[in-house]
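Chapter review: from sequence to fold.
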Amino acid sequence: MPVLRAVEERVEHALGAAGNVAASLAALGAQVALAAVVGADDAGRRIAELAGAARLDVDSLVTDPDRRTGVFSRIVLHGATGAGHHQIRVDREVGAAPSAAVRASLEQAVDARLDGADAVVLADYDETARRLGVLAPDLAGALVERARRRGIPVVATSRRHPEQFAGAEHLFVNREEARRLGLPAEQGAGALARRLAAEGRHGLVTITLGGEGAVTGTADGVHEIPALPVRVVDPCGAGDALLAATTLARLAGADPDEATRLGVHAAALAVGFVGTRPVTAPELVNLVRFGGAGAGKLHDPESLGRILDGLRGSHRIVFTNGFFDLFHSGHVELLRQARALGDLLVVALNSDRSTRENKGEGRPVLGERERVEIISSLEFVDYVTVFDELTPINVIRRLRPHLIVKGGSYRPEEVVGKDLVESRGGRVVVIPYAGRVTTEKLIRSIKAASDGTRPE
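The token string follows.
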């Protein structure tokens, strides 16, 4: 019999299923009221606490004293880079469908919130064959109809029963869920999405395709958006992130292509976290700012700090920073040696503005997007962040690395952040360039070549 031996154990609780959809919308800046049925048990109370912490309005939560709150547990093993490997999933199902009275209470709670709503999102994550979830066909149909009468767009997603959401303006399903709608198996995802929209069941249909990206179909055409090349730590929650970003983009006026593309960017961020952790607006803005460069590795300092907070106890975090302008072999060797000193290597890049303020006009030669893409492509770099200040002191303060590594002729006492890292028991390591090429030498050589002179 296989035995899992827990040497280091950490238990985390997070909103799952529809709760994660709501939290994902809120993390991107939406005001969200969560309407759901929970049991009068510890798990139900924890959902209310987690939802409140996620800035969700929980006044529409309905408590059913006869119902057990569903709990989905995953045992995850962490690798050396922090990637999570799911070993076992244990589902504690709700046991029985909610009563007619409880469903009526939920319907009333939703109805009371419709006035003033910009959209209604119906998330049906019932995976049971017995249909134990709250959104039974009659309730799903009634909610769609009530919202449509008020001119409120309905967004829906369903694991097993997408057919019961006919009339929703935007349906989100994966490829397998789309097949449950009875469409020909030989049709591609784009054809499926367009056919569903053309038949009038929905205005838009988005089919998520995992590592291939997503496709949104309308009656007029198909918008196929490829996935960003990322390192997948954990795919859980990627679909929720895509739904949230795409939905909010559409409400803000984006066309289907733009909205789906933003959703794919959000999904690329979501797979970089262990478990279901909503993507925040600053994270998404940061990724879009760099045109998708560094997806999976690039994070703003605050978001990266939260990631490292969960890894610091089991991983030795190495930090280095620099301009990395005109990237060359000396940079490669520095980063390779830095990574060998710990378990995770974080590289903080001076932004274009920071580089210009430090180095003067004409620098950087390579823009921040190009530098992010180059650094992120290295297999021995785990995370990248970009800062606008003159020095990385605030980044170091937030990330709290175990080691700071610098290359060149620095003396340890000259390294920014030395006191901070040493006050926590860490240390500074200086790796000499040992005569290797430098950016300044490269620039002088290029200028000399363009002038027709011999470089010094």
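Two observations follow directly from the output. The chain has a mean pLDDT of 86. Residues 302-451 form a domain with the Rossmann fold fold (CATH 3.40.50.620).
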